Amino acid sequence: MHRHRINIDVTKIGRTALCSNFPILLYLSSASGINDDNVTSIFSALGANSRKIAVTTNDGTTQCYVEVEQWDNTNNRGWLWVKVPTLSNTDNTRLYFYYNASRPDNTAYVASGICPTASGSHSSLKLKISPEVLTNSRLSSNSIYLMR
Predict the structure, then answer these.
(1) Rounded-to-integer distance, Cα 81 and Cα 31, Å
(2) C-alpha to C-alpha distance for 31 and 145, rounded to whole angstroms
(3) Structure pTM?
(4) H and E: helices and strands count for the chain
């Protein structure tokens, strides 16, 4: 099992209130994160199967729901929407990104083009993000780039 830590810098999100169930876009590539880290090893390990992943909260156990908008293993790029249970307005928010090709597909929490739900079924994901959030959000990470 491989793991990348994701730090969402509270000073970069421009929010004055705590956000619950907030969608963030996780961008994976050869130049990800605030330091342009190369995370293409994810694509080398998983190939075309984007369901061998998990994103957890800071405890490393509680999984977040993930919708894979695009998984381009040929060009080593991925766009994943992560439903963050709580996005703090006072402290950095930490998540973990796990991947392992030998694990079963994570169909309970990861879906492509549809959003997994707590009941195990899937429904279409429709996001509505306010202009304030789009204007004031540029989330960054040590390992993985989080974009608005």
Answers:
(1) 18
(2) 8
(3) 0.76
(4) 2, 10
